[in-house]
Amino acid sequence: MAWVVGGGNVEQPLPIDHAGISPHHWPMQIAGHPRIAIDPAICGGRPIVAGTRVRVTDVLEMLAGGANEAEIVEDFPYLSPEDVRACIGYAAQALDHPVVLAAE
Predict the structure, then answer these.
(1) Taking the model in full, what pTM does it have?
(2) Whole domain around residue 75: which residue ranges?
(3) Which of 1, 16, 83, 99 is the most exposed place for a label (fewest CB within 10 A)?
(4) Using CA atoms, how far apart are residues 60 and 55, in angstroms rounded to an integer?
(5) How many domains are contained in the chain?
(6) DSSP 55
(7) How many CB atoms lie within 10 A of CB 50?
(8) What are the residues whose beta carbons fall under 8 Å from the beta carbon of 104, sequence distance 6 or more?
């Protein structure tokens, strides 16, 4: 079961439909990030907080918009402070690579 994100309210859990997807492919834990998962049946396979339907980008956008860790956890009680920090850590690692710019 996964929880639906909705307006700060905890809603009823929804079943995850994995029809047609090999069980060996879902959910996939991210090496070094046990709180982050990827499941093709949830949020189009985008990285999520494990056990939820909260995308890593949702948390990052809330932080970028000025919310702090405590506000996010208050609005989404099924998230923990460690989940919020895990999203930041995952994003930092995902962006830690050289960028090659084409000459103009």
Answers:
(1) 0.71
(2) 1-104
(3) 99
(4) 9
(5) 1
(6) B
(7) 19
(8) none
d(CA 93, CA 90): 5
User: Is residue 73 over pLDDT 90?
Assistant: yes
67-100 burial, b at 16+ Cβ within 10 Å, e below that, comes to bebeebbeebebbeeebbebbebbbeeeeeeeee
**CA–CA separation, 44 and 46 (whole Å):** 6
Q: Which tens digits make up the pLDDT trace of 21-33?
A: 455 555 677 888 9
Cα(20)–Cα(51) distance, integer angstroms: 20
Stretch among 25-29, 31-35, 71-75, 85-89 having the lowest mean pLDDT:
25-29
Place of tokens 């962006």: 95
CATH number at residue 35: 1.10.10.10
User: Residue 42, Cβ neighbours under 10 Å: how many?
Assistant: 21
